[in-house]
Fold CaiB/BaiF CoA transferase family protein.
Amino acid sequence: MLLPGPVATLRLAEMGADVLKIEPPGAGDAARAMMQSSADEVATRPGAFYRLVNHGKRETRIDLKSQSGRNVLLALAREADVLVESFRPGVMTRLGVGYETLSQINPKLVYCAISGYGADSPFADRAGHDLNYIGYSGVLDQLAARDGTPVLPNFQIADLLGGALSAVTQILAALWQVARGGAGRFIDISMAHAAYAYNVVAKVALANDDAAALQPGGGLLNGGVPCYNLYRTQDGRWLAVGALELKFWQAFCKALGREEWAERHWSLGQAIGGTDAAGLIRELAAVIAAEPLQTWIDLLEPIDCCVTPVLTAGEASRHPLFNPDVLQEALAENTAEQANHPVAQDAAAQGAPRVNPQMGAFSSGKPFSYGPWN
């Protein structure tokens, strides 16, 4: 009830759905006070977490343990297209408002139940959170440091990918069926099972009987090649090198002035996780560590080589890629620079077409300046 259901219905609301969030009586959803700042607490308003995942929804309070409350839910379900709930399996049935009951009064109803382990699994009654689901599914083992220590992610993979995204996908498919004259359906979302299903690269390693590829630094995408790796910069920041395809790696090597590295690539026979790969990773790490992050941004961001900075959450929020206001400022500044450039002025005098202002900041080859390291 913290992330999967709220985020799934948030995405539906963003698509135009009218979402009514039902909370228990009294204090309402416990998420209102979760991660609540002192300012929100003083203002007696829900915290940013609650506001973020419930934006654009209507809200009401219903006591499902009372007959009057259940009658309200039955009336709502009779007219609803979709019901999403995140109780443990069986709770809604025990309350008298499970799928069998609701589908009788509304055969077109799409009923989506999101739980940790699914309605019919051996662990159906067990409690859990994101960390437990990715632990069981083999995903957490793949999020590991070089020494094999699992990394505690601050991105809830099973909740958001396994729970919310899977729910939205299946809900839309079910609504499509209903729109074509079909009946509603019960959708059973297991976050653990979905996370397991999405662990694709690890499944490839298992299918190939390649145990080394499952270990940190042993596979194509987990540190076994220099062209797809993370490198620390002089100022303690990180550069993400994603030059997985040969053409990107060659462009990257050329930009570094290390053309002799261009043929040392997995697609040309370099052994993944092998001696040459490990040696080149060390060589490249030394080069990257010699300069601060901004130097690499200035050099590599204008080049089509799949090399990018590792931004903090705060920096990402201020980046023009995600912040329309910053983007417009950058575009306006770039357009003004183009208009004042002597070549641009001469071209304008001769009636040449103007550069598309929406493309100017991206087509000029000038990297954006962002972040506190400027």
